[in-house]
Amino acid sequence: MAEEDVHTIRGFTKDRAEALTDGIFATVMTILILSLVVPVITSGNVDQMLSADLISLVPNVVTYVMSFLVLGTIWIGHNNIFRYLERAESKVQWINMAFLLGVGFIPFTTALLGRYPFDHIASLIYGINLLGVAIVYNFFFGYALMEKLLHREVQVKFFKTALKRSSVGILVYLIGIIFSFVNPEISLGLYIIMPIYYMALGTISGKEAIH
Amino acid sequence: MAEEDVHTIRGFTKDRAEALTDGIFATVMTILILSLVVPVITSGNVDQMLSADLISLVPNVVTYVMSFLVLGTIWIGHNNIFRYLERAESKVQWINMAFLLGVGFIPFTTALLGRYPFDHIASLIYGINLLGVAIVYNFFFGYALMEKLLHREVQVKFFKTALKRSSVGILVYLIGIIFSFVNPEISLGLYIIMPIYYMALGTISGKEAIH
Amino acid sequence: MAEEDVHTIRGFTKDRAEALTDGIFATVMTILILSLVVPVITSGNVDQMLSADLISLVPNVVTYVMSFLVLGTIWIGHNNIFRYLERAESKVQWINMAFLLGVGFIPFTTALLGRYPFDHIASLIYGINLLGVAIVYNFFFGYALMEKLLHREVQVKFFKTALKRSSVGILVYLIGIIFSFVNPEISLGLYIIMPIYYMALGTISGKEAIH
Amino acid sequence: MAEEDVHTIRGFTKDRAEALTDGIFATVMTILILSLVVPVITSGNVDQMLSADLISLVPNVVTYVMSFLVLGTIWIGHNNIFRYLERAESKVQWINMAFLLGVGFIPFTTALLGRYPFDHIASLIYGINLLGVAIVYNFFFGYALMEKLLHREVQVKFFKTALKRSSVGILVYLIGIIFSFVNPEISLGLYIIMPIYYMALGTISGKEAIH
User: Fold this and answer.
1) More confident of the two residues D144 and A118
2) DSSP state, A34?
3) Looking at the domain assignment, is residue B210 inside a domain?
4) Residue C211 resides in a domain
5) What is the pLDDT of residues A146-168, one digit of tens each?
6) Chain D touched by B26 (CB under 8 Å)
7) Shortest CA gap C182–chain D (Å)
8) What is the pTM of this model?
């Protein structure tokens, strides 16, 4: 068996790691909606009571949209990392698992923040969750650069720009966590701005895949 | 690095966007059924009480089937758009995200309409959800045409027909929304007719992929 | 544009229909487990009460395993149909949708039967659900044969055997439905036997892919 | 039809079995989080009560992380088996189904252990679930070796090492089950150590794909 064959056989293929990641993102993004529960009205003016109950769900709608778009952003980012990966060894698989573990918490922390949008604890926990995901994500980027796992033709410069951009996420979630102690309303505002910022970057510089 | 390579490396591949979309559709179509809750009967004639409770679930069954088929219709449509896409740049990814965000609301609005099938508010919200999805879907079609993102050999005429057909959806959901204010029963009827109409189009003109 | 190109462009690719189907089966098979709810014990001897509560969940475990294996069986069958399909036109897509719609009901009817395993209504509804799925499945097989959608090298004889075998399902679920009116225990027994029968066929004649 | 063609047509392709497996793992890993329920606080000091309620969820967080990483470990292992499979006949499909059936129980047994982390019954059931999955997994490995279903170039030695390593799982879960009768705290400790052990193996010997 030639050296090359050994590599092919022992090295991980990316396909299934991508399939698992896409499946987890798809399920996470879908079950976010389970935080919106249909109100049960058994007596009185159904239409009037339903309106009132649905209005109380507005914060849940806001956090649903917010987390959906954040997940969309980091999924597009993950997409980029994986496309340029030349090898996906065991360590890469485990960094990806840690990343997905953090992503898996998002339906819970989103539902928590949706129920208590201006509460310190809820705001703190959401911030910690997203900060954790952002850190692992950036670690992944950095690790791939350091270990030279990427396609030769991808310019390091290109990747460094992306790294810088995604570091903004770490900074903003860190500030959000700090504000949760004094003013959770500002934290919520920062959490809402994040996906809008990335979306704007992604759609304005339309031809650029990495952002 | 040649100009072409840059394009290949920077341009998005469609595969993973399709995988995420299929995953979200699959999960959404499956969790629709969670609006059907098994009745809990603790005393009395189980068989008789179960019958009564299950009969009260009939509207939920109707809205489940209706939304499942609507999702089937728009999934087939999405299939068509993506098959002909030559490039899937960042903007396309974000239009797709907005589309999936709307799709993600359907389990909630379906459960709401299933519980209150003849209520104004429930009917209005379901209509707005589906109208939103239809608008983003048509915008996607139009954007792809305008930006010439499609495979050269796909006739514009072909696509325009599809665009016209899917515009019917926008019109019908708009009418459904209006009727929700005066006669939610008519809205429900319109919502039920929609997937049947598209299914008929799709199965009668069996050889035509786009509809 | 050559005639062949038109066909390629207009004809459906099977890939995404398979992806959607796999996604729906995966989600359905997973959310089956949601019918098993962790008991809440707030006072008394936790260990003793937990045992009692878990024993009452045994019928749910049985119906979970039963439906999981039935879904496994029909997924393997679907696998076979699609592998031999040469074209997947619009009509095929819609037959597949009807099939998936029936599959989507299984988590509900399974949870219902798990809660009321010996009840007439629960037994009847489970039987109707599975009968419906079996009928659409066989219709799919028959349609593919009739319309000559299959790979030339697949012998008709081969397919007819498979068709005969899967017709057993229709017969057994029909008998199960009839027995639900007089003796739901026998229905349950028949429902349990079905996946075991197919599993035995599949593992005994190990080299034969279709069963 | 040549002998070879028969083989190709009758033999299973691996692609869809991998797709179903990835879909089930993705959904199972995601719905694990549903055992974390957002506390409902209607009166009193929200912040204080929320802290108390969230602290009571810590065992659920621990079991969530533990099961997520166990699932990650066995998914990577499954990945390895399937990559080297040359044929995936009907028997292989059914062994895979049995494997997935066991995996499908994990959200329930994890939620049970999360609620009653130091209880004998909960600890016993979790242990039995994971032991079952480990046994089927090893049986799969052994079966593939015995029936020579693997790619010629994969050294038997290589596989035997992997087999030995995964046997550690069987042993540890067996010990965990025994301890659940006398000291469930030790069982929990063992259950927590398992994924950490495999993760360490996977990341220390970073270039080795099988572990």
Assistant:
1) A118
2) G
3) no
4) no
5) 887 777 777 677 777 777 878 89
6) yes
7) 32
8) 0.91
Interface list for D 168-207 with A (CB within 8 A): 199, 202-203, 205-207
SS3 B150: strand
Over residues B145-175, the pLDDT tens digits come to: 888 777 777 767 767 777 787 889 999 999 9
**Chains meeting A at 3+ CB pairs closer than 8 A?**
B, C, D
Identify the pLDDT of residue C91.
86
Q: C5 CB near a chain D CB, below 8 Å?
A: no
For D38-66, how does the pLDDT look when each residue is reduced to its tens digit (9 = 90+)? 998 888 788 888 999 999 999 999 999 99
How far is C162 from C83, CA to CA, in rounded Å? 14
C91, B206: Cβ pair inside 8 Å?
A: yes
Q: Considering its fold, how many domains does chain C have in total?
A: 1
| Nearest-angstrom CA–CA distance, C152 and D1 | 10
Residue A23 touches chain C, beta carbons under 8 Å: yes
Tell me the chain D residues in contact with residue A100 when contact means C-beta distances shorter than 8 Å. Answer: 29, 68, 72
Q: A17 vs chain D: nearest CA distance in angstroms?
A: 9
What average pLDDT score do residues D180-187 get? 96
Instruction: Please name the member of B27, B101, B121 whose beta carbon is closest to the beta carbon of A26.
Output: B27
- A210: in domain: no
Please say whether the dihedral angle defined by the alpha carbons of residues C128, C130, C133 and C139, taken in this order, is positive or negative.
negative
D26, B26: Cβ pair inside 8 Å? no
Mutate to test the interface with A, among B92, B121, B149 (most CBs of A within 10 A): B121
Provide the residue type at A39 as one letter: P
Q: What is the pLDDT of chain A when averaged over all its residues?
A: 85
| Binary contact (B27, C28; C-beta < 8 A) | no
Judging contacts by C-beta atoms under 8 Å, the chain D residues touching residue B26 are 23
ipTM of the complex: 0.88
Q: Examine residue C87 and state whether it is found in any structural domain, yes or no.
A: yes
Q: B76-90, B103-117, C16-30, D119-133: lowest mean pLDDT where?
A: B76-90
* Least confident segment among B12-21, B179-188, C115-124, D17-26: B12-21
Whether the pLDDT of residue B1 is over 50: the answer is no
Q: Which domain holds residue A121?
A: 3-204
